[in-house]
Fold these 3 entries.
Entry 1:
Amino acid sequence: MSTLLQDRPATATPAATTPPLLEVQDLVIAYRDHSGREQRVVHGLSFSVAPGEVVALVGESGSGKTTTAQAVIGLLADNGRREQGSIRLQGTEVSDWSAARWNSIRGRVISLVPQDPTTSLNPVRTVGDQVGEILRIHGLRDRSAIEARVIDLLTRVGLSQPALRARQYPHELSGGMRQRVLIAIAIALRPALIIADEPTSALDVTVQRRILDLIDELRRETGTAVLLVTHDLGVAADRAHRLIVMQGGRIQEQGPTLELLRHPQSAYTRRLLSDAPSLTPAPRRTPPETAVATEDWAIEVEDLVHDFHAPSQGRGIFRAVDGVSLRLRRGSTHAIVGESGSGKTTTIRDIVGLARPTSGRIRIAGAELTGLRGEALRQLRRKVQLVYQNPFSSLDPRQRVFDIIEEPLLNFEPLPHQERRQHVLDMLERVGLPAAVLERRPHALSGGQRQRVAIARALVLQPEVVVLDEAVSALDVTVQAQILALLAQLQQDLGLSYLFISHDLAVVRQIADTVSVLRAGKVVDVGSVEDVFLRPTSDYTRELMDAIPGKRSIDFVPHPA
């Protein structure tokens, strides 16, 4: 009989002499497309995971990380198949197992913490019912015992008022709470191996740290091993004993984390490390000089207040923005940071004229915004353009790239067709795209190319201010680095002023000159990036800075001179 049923000792750290818990040998995986052709996406992977060990699979989109993890837990897509290779779990070959056999050990021996808690929980079932399901599947029948175990698990993962949370539905919980529920399900039966597939990529930095601390604490207590799938090199550097760097379905290199960070062997790994903002020392920058005259400011916000009607909030008012003031100097970059619910999005919607604040003043390029209406407001919007977070959804999939970039000109500039076309061509060249993409539609472009199109669209009207709303958060680290370099070059060439909104503090450290930290609608810290990051004045800001991933390992990463 399989050794998968054996009890496991609780060990805090992996031992070199312990037999591997997971062994993957010469794994090859292919996907079949709609025409029936098969394409290999994983090419001869070999690696192992020891009991109590954290091994991180890192690499960009398309590197084969998630496909490998799916194969390890027997959840390959219907059009995917293992062509060759071996997967052994606790010494037992599992690669040819049926769905029924896999179901008998999922949750009990191997568990999955998926990436997106929004889509991974059933919206019409209570949290407690979904946590209890894994217990019922594996034989627990006593209702009161299940309810008690559910409360215990929700308590264990740090949810406040666990009895209340058990009765609630997923939409009533925050993203961090939902991810804790998924972890509770994953650890319910104390599995030997947890596969964590981008478990914190959608979370704020402080919530991310709490979730990763929780997984690490559970691992130390129970001896559970973790296969961590992530594109965040800072997270991997902080949390993993060993790193496996993947590119194009192949392992570029693997080894102990600090050794690999100190002495990366492949050019690809060196590029990844140099592009990762969380592993890159902050650049030295000269703080912008103090502005003296009004015309030196691209944006001025004074005592901004924005209330929403919320009948459930006692008096019926929810104050999302509470007296925010900030200034963006011409030609510089000011960042707004803070966790979900801090008021970032409402603030920028007011600044770009998409919403009307309750009170306060906003000046854009010296012109008062808050009192404008109709055509006057529309014309002022020419001076401030917005680049959204997700280039996959912000571009019209039905339009050609040419149409997407040209559209603002049609709305604002009564120019002849040939002149408009030249404007589009000039802007395309500025953002580093070839003219050949003009006839393509967004689905035919990569994520980085889509975001370059979105930037070109924002710049075609020659605005003075560009608001970048999480504009690089959906991109792989290398593409992200390319877009940040592009933004810096465009700012230098065109004298642009950037208002940069992000939850990624490592990126903010790289790109911004000044920063405002928001919490519950209020500014709790403001100043130069160097001052705020190194000498924060509020406990909240200190907590944010301490939670930046990669800080534990940054001194070990080699950087080009």
Entry 2:
Amino acid sequence: MTNKDQGLDTFPKLLRRNVQQRPDVPAYREKEYGIWQTYSWKDVYDNSRSLALGMAELGLKRGDAVAIIGSNRPQLYWVFAATQALGALPVPIYQDGVAEEIQYVLEHAGVKMVVVEDQEQVDKVLSVLDQCPTIEQVIYKDTRGMRHYNQPNVRSYEDVQEMGRAYDAKHPDFFDSEADKGVGSDIATLMYTSGTTGRPKGVMLSFDNMVQAGKLSVEFEKLNEKDKVLSYLPMAWVGDHLFSYSQATHAGFSVNCPESAETVHTDLREVGPTYYFAPPAVFETMLTQMMIRIEDASTIKQKMFHYFIGVAKKCGVQILEKKPVSLVDRLLYALGDLLVFGPLKNSLGFSQIRVAYTAGAPMGPEVFKFYRSLGINLKQLYGQTESCAYVCIQSDNDVRSDTVGPPAPGCEIKLDDATGEVLYKSPGTFVGYYKNDEATKETKTEEGWVHTGDAGIMTDDGQLKIIDRAKDVGKLKDSTLFAPQYIENKLKFFPSISEAVCHGADKDTVTAFINIDLEAVGNWAERRGLSYTSYMDLANRDEVYELVKGCIEEVNRDLAIDSELAGAQISRFLILPKALDADDGELTRTRKVRRRIIAERYGTLIEALYSDVDNIHIESQMTFEDGRKGALKADIKVRDSETYPAMRAAS
């Protein structure tokens, strides 16, 4: 840390600096009842201070844990600074988690206070209170529906702040003196992993981790107080914490919270962010919706769109990267920008974007190149909860679809000679797993190297390529490389496919489960006069199987020209009768596939894929949105797809 940064080793101290340097600059904005409410950095400080002192009055002490559950709201972000100023430990939890998932984290972290968004989250916490005896207070932000809740340990956010203001009047020096006690080596937050392979682990991140990761990444992208982001991803996810809390506090830019999950795209267009982050699934969904709208457009508009998208694919990336392009192509691209790309970016809310990131899972190269060809400076970021999402960042002058870039400033990377697993050292490297020394020792070496669990290779010029999760990479019986995520990402490029799970390790061939995109395929069916009653009904139509078969065979043709993966083409597939769901344990809360759960639950379907049957009956349990359990019974078709001879690259 430089001399200039001495004394700014925690977020409460950085917040105090922002009040001194930019008190009136917009810090957090929230759309409420259709109107954007703006809070300056002084507002953030005053609100965090009163909340912290109110929590102190209620008995919060240094070392206590405070859970945060809810959608992205300024008031919930302020809980981090308030809690940290007192030396307590903020623990964000995924707001869409069912009661059992929330209970595990509350109990494991020994949470003393819970700050939630609304009645729904209050009810979840109250339903597990008997299993979480350490909880003393439940504080809610939204008062709607809370009139008849008269439990003595349930109170409103505003009431706690009123208590804090009264406490401040009696003890005016308490807040600053407590904040000054914090140092960089203190634990700043406890963030739980998504639990891809089992129970989530509590990752202890220090102020040194989060402050340095935020500072270095802000300097790398030259972020400043004029930038603005839309904060809509789960607060419990480390990526949001880096962008919407650490970087925002460092650079002083504004964090904009949407009105609801349903209004995100509308709010995105209104905000017009200069800095944007989304996991691949969000970009894939946007692309799907875009293609649906084009299919509903007039013939002239469709032809114009496809013609200029062809121009963009030919020269758009080169123009973005300021590389030589012929005058004719440059003029055609400019015309396309006027007629197609510009309006398209405006409708997406991307008109002002200076830099955009994707991370959290590999993105298909086709999707990645599509957005960059429109002139959007989309780059890939690589990291994990254990690194504060800070390991690799692509630089503006060298962006590639097949790498995640070189090590970020201050980071080191090496590959395990035997397994090809990626290991790193980072300023963001976590302190350890909470209450789990054994897992800490397995993940973090004595020299400070962290095992990622990802398989990768380094290019000759020092760029990292992530192949897949190391445990998921395997080989077919004939020793052909099997990298399921790579194939799945190719499949998800098609608007009609929302999710795919490939099988093949130690098998003769590769097979696949497919989830169709209900909106895209439903729109496709309606334009062809195909009626259907439900997702299950639509997924089982022969016409839909033919549509998906065409997508799979196009992927197979692509794989045929890859010398390493030509033998990993998909030979058989089926369309699942339900969408894979986090509530059913099939996906994590960050939408990653839980392969072990799927293999156990749908083992009979995997067997069917490797047999000669054309139909298979399945009975499985599913969870409805209201938490009720139900039985799923369905007859599923199994179909072959054509594979192609390996082709020479030159051909």
Entry 3:
Amino acid sequence: MNIIEKIIALHSKQKIVKPGNIVDVMIDTRAARDFGGANVVKNLLDNGLTVQDPSKTIFTFDCNPGGSDQKYAQNQHYCRQYARENSIRIYDVDSGIGTHLAIDNGLAWPGSTFVSTDSHANIMGAIGSFGQGMGDQDIAAAWAKGYVWFKVPASIRLNLNGTKPADVSAKDIVLNLLSIFGANKLLGYSVEIYGKDVDKLTLSERVTISSMATEMGAIILFFSPTPAMLDELKALTGKAYASVSADPDAEYEKTFDIDLGKFVQMVAKPGHPHDDIAVNDVMNIKIDSGFIGSCTNGRIEDLRIAASILKGNKIAPGVVLKIVPATDAIWNQAMNEGLIKIFKDSGAMVSNAGCAGCAAGQVGQNGPGEVTISTGNRNFEGKQGKGFVYLASPAIVAASSVAGCITTPDQIPGTPALFTVTHDTLRVTRKEEKIKSDKPTIVEGTVWIIPKDDIDTDMIFHNRYLTITDIREMGQYTFDNLKGFEDFSKKSKAGDIVITNKNFGAGSSRQQAVDCFLSLGISCILAESFGAIYERNAINAAMPILTYDPSILEKADLKNGDRIRVDFVSGELTNLENRKTCSVNKFYDAQLAIYRNGGLL
């Protein structure tokens, strides 16, 4: 048998397995991340299932270290609560990437099985372990039963012959392989990699290559552990492991012989990891940012390579380099070795350990039009942001960040590439419609009475929506964090009027808390008082706000749902249901002038 057949046979109580066999495989370590973890728990609870063996079960919070996104924070805490009740270990937001933690802490080992809600769990092939990324239901089944069904894949033997060129890194090796096999020629196969120079690859280099099996469509890329690599694992985990290897007469569906000596330094062009090109063919393309990290290139060796290039250099003017170690232990090691100081002295930004931009939950994202060179494993459109992402090795990313353009360490120019002012990068988006100078100073609408003090801007327009800049999109989120009024945006109509209590709009300076009402067409807001910043924001946006004495509710006999008329100039309020009138504080002169102007600007 070959490597994957040996591991599956061992974990399915079979003497021998062959491609196409479907067997139940016992899983040594069963992981769920903050991305997907909450759904794993939900699947268990909804189906009345319990955890079969908590000692083999873990959570890893690596997609959004710090819980900086409200939904991630909610899911993380939900998982924490479940973990406390079921004695499950958590590698929390201060720990790092789950697959790396598994390798470095002995949760996966040569010949073991490991599953996670991480599609790059097949990184375990670097140590001769069978790792698989799986969906929420699969992981829930593994947690509940300890086994998952699996179809034994066919295997390919990949011989990398010849001598590796000195300037070719592990990332270059996998990009060269991607250029040869694309995204689907290895689809569904278990791949074993062999060669004289392959045996010399360190653990970190094997991790880099195995981590991109998913991008090649492979089930896994296996390396048979060498004595030197087993020594590395023992140094990390304190445990001695035996190697796992294919039998001499193992069967493979295909064998490929490839000349490693012909490999060159490469980058993947934006959009597809397999759209690869020699770095010499894209030299001098201007970049906006660089990123070093991810499960592919966040090891201490990667950081040392970057530091050797950044030492004594400065990041090019206007370029941002973001560096994210894979684990907290690697972060601390980088600090103890002085690498963090080198990074900071060069002008790079260093973040806490985690998946970073690949998971859209930490530093490393880019904006529309931004050109980034990244050590990540994916550059699909929208994966690391809305810009353009080139994939490359840590050495090329570090060198390019100093140069301000794509380059190699031996060709960093004496003067970095600078941004040129073209005056057409940002275009004026002036509104086409003519600003009306005859804005109505008398409005009529249906009343929403919200009898609460201190309604803050997070209740009005929650901070999870602050990235929205199009006012047309804002209305749907109005009050969705105000208990009892979460459906306001669905039930309110253009022209409606809000009446509330003291200190409306307390809290932050966010303009969206005003603009969301403009988006819905709310005709005015009456409050006993407004937050100081909110009052200015509303007046400047020509959103009609007025203050009133609380006695008006009684004087006008106002009830929720009544139709009223408000005169901004005279301050007269009329309940159109009973014709009763009362006075509110009218617009003051500056407020009226700004309102008639259509806003401050």
